Structure formats: structure tokens, C-alpha cells
Amino acid sequence: MGQLYQAITEVEENISTLLSEVKSLRQYVEYLEEENVKLKRQLCAVSEADTVRVQKNAAKIQKEAQENLEKLYQEGFHVCHIYFGEPVEGSCLFCNAFLRKD
Ligand SMILES: [Zn+2]
User: Biological process (GO) annotations (predicted)?
Assistant: First the structure.
């Protein structure tokens, strides 16, 4: 009888341990779900506001790069892919085509 009582006590202890593990797992799942919602919201916020800014900056950078290349060509250097950085004698069809972007 004493042995059976001990066995039942052990089972009760195991169930209690399992229940508390399930409880903490459930809390963890809730935390992860909240975090997921928060991250999704942040992702939406980024794509809304910052996309325009990134596009504007990209356009600005592209414009500046174009201006720098035009300046470099006016100062007498190739900006085309074939002779880039070498001194231009006369004018270069490739550079002209590249700067006109055609
Ligand atoms: Zn050239």
C-alpha cells in the first residue's frame, strides 16, 4: 500500500511539473505572438515612410554621380566603360553615349 501511494505521489508531481512547463510555454508563445505582431507593424511603418526617402536619396545620388561623370569628361577623362579614367583625345563616342544614357 505504501508503494502504491508513493507511485501516485510521483505521478502527481510529474503532472504538476508538466503543467507548469505547459504554462511557461504558453507564456512564451504569447510573447512570441506579440513580438510578431509588433515586428509586422514595424515592417509596414518602414515601407510606408522610408521608401519615399530612400527613393529620393537614390535619385539624388544618381544625379550627383551623373554630374561628377560629366565634370570628369569635361576635364578630359573617359567615363565610358571601355576607357574609364584615361585621358580623352578629342571626343569619345562611348562617353557621349554613356552620358546621354542611350
Ligand atoms: Zn570614352
Answer: DNA replication; negative regulation of DNA replication
